[in-house]
Amino acid sequence: MAASTADPLIDMAFLRDRAFAKAMAYGNGLTATVLAAYSDVEARTWPLQRTQADAVLAGGTLPPDAILTKLAAARGMDIEPFALVVQAKAQVFEAIVEAGQILRVAAEGLLSTSLDTPEKLDAAFEALRAQAEAAAAKVGLAP
Question: Each residue of 21-53: pLDDT tens digit?
C-alpha cells in the first residue's frame, strides 16, 4: 500500500466537508433559479398536475373539481392544451431535478478519503463544477 502524501497539519476532513457543502449550495442555487418564479404552494402541486395531465393526455377524464380542470378554466384554456403545457413544463423541471440529483450523488465523492490533499480535492471539485455547469446548460440554466 502506498503511503499517503497528505500533510498531517491540514484538516482534510474539514476541507472535504466544506467542498461538499459548496457543491450542494451550487446545486441548490440552480434549482432555486427555477423555483423562484413560482410560489411554494404552486410548486407543491406540480406532481399532482403532472399526474392529471398525463391522465388527460392518455384519453382519460378528470372530475370538475380536479386541480388541472380548475387551472385550465382559470386560464381560459381547454383541458387538453393546458395538459400539454403542464406536461412540457414538468419534463423540463424533471430534467433539472435529475441533474440536481446526479450532482448530489457525485458531490458525495468529495467526501472520499482518497482525496487526501487539497490539490486532489480542488481538482475533484472543479471537475464536479464543470459537470454541473454542463448539466445546467442542457436544461437551459446559466450557472
Answer: 998 888 888 778 878 888 888 888 989 999 999
Task: Evaluate whether 83 touches 68 at the Cβ level (below 8 Å).
Answer: yes
Does residue 6 carry a pLDDT above 70? no
**CA–CA distances in Å: residue 1 to residues 4, 113:** 9, 15
Q: Please list the alpha-helical segments (H only) found in the chain.
A: 12-35, 40-57, 67-74, 79-108, 118-138
Residues 127, 97 contacting (CB under 8 angstroms): no
Residue with the three cell numbers 382559470: 74
How many alpha carbons lie under 13 Å from residue 26 in its C-beta half-sphere?
Answer: 24
